[in-house]
């Protein structure tokens, strides 16, 4: 990891393609890999404490994960703020907590967003549900139009 | 009968549910720790070609995919006709380096993130202040070292298995690539990340911390969840020393009597049964000869340090001897000593990583062997949380027809239930008011086992949770998944 200056953007895709729609985060990163963008991509089953150190080296962070929340467009893209969220119940940390730890430990506050893509099925099976595929395409379109072309991430 | 439900158990992998059944006088009538099951995966993998198993099983768990990967790889080696000793030395050493990196980072995660808040702030501390964020504020240096130790192990995994999380290292008969000179030097020279020597030094430092903590808190640590049990794990085939990658199965009872005498992996099925309880989705493994009531065993760091005859690395061996003196060289059945044992293993892993990183074999291209095809394979390793068994049968078209997994948390099912019972009987029973401190002690007892509850599904905002309610007659009256 380079120490002088910050890298520009990192996208953390969270999920597991062995559990149907839980793989949305990884599959979205697969899509980004084909877009020839100047972004670093990292695949995660879960966010962990060392990700606080990782994102402290970047100006911008995007977390991509499946969500069970009802969304109007099949996905949401929203700002993520550091927060002391204590309700985590596993080894995994929430994006807000990772940001909080990056601030506490490394005194760095990257600009952060969450892309949540709505999923529906979570069993041990490879392959997305049809509805999740549609949501994924919606999210791709939005990302291509508003993020990749307009570079709103660094504005 | 009143029923107290603690749900979910915070800071363990996945979700579980503890139910404590009280009678009309608030005395504990019974208690249960309910956790989810792996059986779905065993069905999921049927029909896949056997060579896909080491990659597919990584999807079982977001915390220890490498452990599943290597256990499956050992089983698949057998299917292609190779025992662990038949692999080339470079392949064996690269796999072991991967494994030590995995155990090191997992133990670091557990201690710094999950256990240290309980130890540093106490079980009566406000739960909103008993977490890693508070450790970061109050113990900044400790938190930063914990993160860098965790990162070191992760970087070892990345160097061997590849950047992507579902990377591949082990393949049937060996490994797919050597360690590069550049990667080797990255871990040794300390220029870009703290070196392996720093990992050894810091591991030693944190053992000093836990020893001092025991000195200051011995009354609580010596009594909390102290209950008799068997202890199971792998030991080195030659000398009975601590072994994490390939060894014989050894078990001792609560008094140190041998109950499983260095049994080869392939024979495990002759010695184990898996019991079932209608209130739990997880099975209860036990030694056939001792029966279900007496044949269950703890697995994991405490069990491994209990059963081994020594440790091959000098610093970890010194610490093992000190650890054993705490119980006058007798078997240690005290749950809270699991943390100390885990840290000794972390030091052992750091020392072993240094040895392997300095071994030129890991730079060799001699990576693969071939054997004569079989239809069955068994792979057993010591995962961070304990003994992990993968067993596959395949047909003549190379498809997996049967899969049996006994994971560490399954072995620890009964021990964790015993720990919950201990807390229920010794801390909660007879009380008219359940305090936050009491509830947390239930969690502390479970967390000592670092259970992994088969939960790689973690979509934003929701975690899988099985809720089962039983009446006083043991009947399932309600079941819900969310």
Q: How are the secondary structure elements laid out?
A:
The complex is a heterodimer of chains A (about 160) and B (about 475).
Chain A: E1 7-14, H1 24-33, E2 40-44, H2 50-55, E3 58-67, E4 75-79, H3 95-106, E5 111-118, H4 130-148
Parallel strand pairs in A: 1-2, 1-3, 3-5
Antiparallel strand pairs in A: 4-5
Chain B: E1 2-6, E2 16-22, E3 28-35, H1 39-44, H2 53-56, H3 65-79, H4 89-121, H5 132-138, H6 140-161, E4 170-171, E5 174-175, H7 181-188, H8 196-216, H9 218-223, E6 230-235, E7 248-252, E8 258-263, H10 268-271, E9 272-275, E10 284-287, H11 291-294, E11 297-298, H12 301-307, H13 314-325, H14 337-357, E12 376-383, E13 386-394, E14 400-406, H15 408-411, H16 413-428, H17 436-447, E15 466-470, E16 476-481
Parallel strand pairs in B: 6-11
Antiparallel strand pairs in B: 1-2, 2-3, 4-5, 6-7, 7-8, 9-10, 12-13, 13-14, 15-16
Helix pairs in contact in B: 4-6, 4-14, 5-6, 8-14, 12-14, 13-14, 16-17
Q: Could you please describe the fold and organization of this structure?
A:
The complex is a heterodimer of chains A (155) and B (482). With 155 residues, chain A is of the alpha/beta class. In chain A, 30% of the residues lie in helices and 23% in strands. Chain A has one domain (7-154): Rossmann fold (3-Layer(aba) Sandwich), CATH 3.40.50.1450. Chain A is built from four helices and five strands. Chain B has two domains: 2-36 and 413-481, no CATH class; 45-165 and 187-411, Cytochrome-c3 Hydrogenase, chain B (Orthogonal Bundle), CATH 1.10.645.10. Chain B is 42% helix and 18% strand. Chain B is built from 17 helices and 16 strands. Chain B has helices spanning 39-44, 53-56, 65-79, 89-121, 132-138, 140-161, 181-188, 196-216, 218-223, 268-271, 291-294, 301-307, 314-325, 337-357, 408-411, 413-428, 436-447, and strands at 2-6, 16-22, 28-35, 170-171, 174-175, 230-235, 248-252, 258-263, 272-275, 284-287, 297-298, 376-383, 386-394, 400-406, 466-470, 476-481. Residues 6-13, 454-471 and 476-482 of chain B have low confidence and may be disordered. The interface between A and B is large, with 43 and 53 residues.
